[in-house]
Amino acid sequence: QLQLVESGGGLVQPGGSLRLSCATSGFPLASYTIGWFRQAPGKEREGVSCISKSGGLTTYADSVKGRFTISRDNAKNTVYLQMNSLKPEDTAVYYCAAAPFTYVCSEKMTFWGKGTLVTVSS
User: Fold this and answer.
1) What residues does 60 pair with on adjacent strands?
2) From 77's CA, which of 1, 46, 99, 112 has a CA 20 to 30 Å away?
3) How far apart are the C-alpha atoms of 82 and 19, rounded to whole Å?
4) For 78, which DSSP code?
5) For residue range 32-83, what is the model confidence (pLDDT) as tens digits?
């Protein structure tokens, strides 16, 4: 099975930046569409961003457009989420997920990581 491990979470002040990484193993990353999701305390999990297998197509939730950037390096089997201008409402556990047979991201992704906590607070 494809395995995904998130890293890079932590405590950051409002307005700060953080870069999350999703390292994969087991199968070539290039075979999968990858999405970033997040779940804040007391709320349902929501999609944050999605990137196609080649990296040519990306999508973002309205709440993060202009602040977050998703990218991938298939040679390194790693997907990134650069988060700038962070707000307290960005506080959540962030998950990366993979799906082999779709060009879009949804809650029905095939493989999921265990998540990394991002806390935005002063």
Assistant:
1) 49
2) 46
3) 4
4) E
5) 999 999 999 999 999 999 999 989 999 999 999 999 999 999 999 999 999 9
- What the block records as the tokens of 115 is 């998540």
Distant-in-sequence contacts of 10-13, Cβ < 8 A, 24+ apart: 10/117, 10/118, 10/119, 11/119, 11/121, 12/86, 12/118, 12/119, 12/120, 13/86, 13/120, 13/121, 13/122
Mean pLDDT of the chain: 96
Rounded CA-CA distance 106/98 in Å is: 10
Burial class (CB in 10 A: 0-12, 13-18, 19+), 4: buried
Neighbours of 79 (CB within 10 A): 27
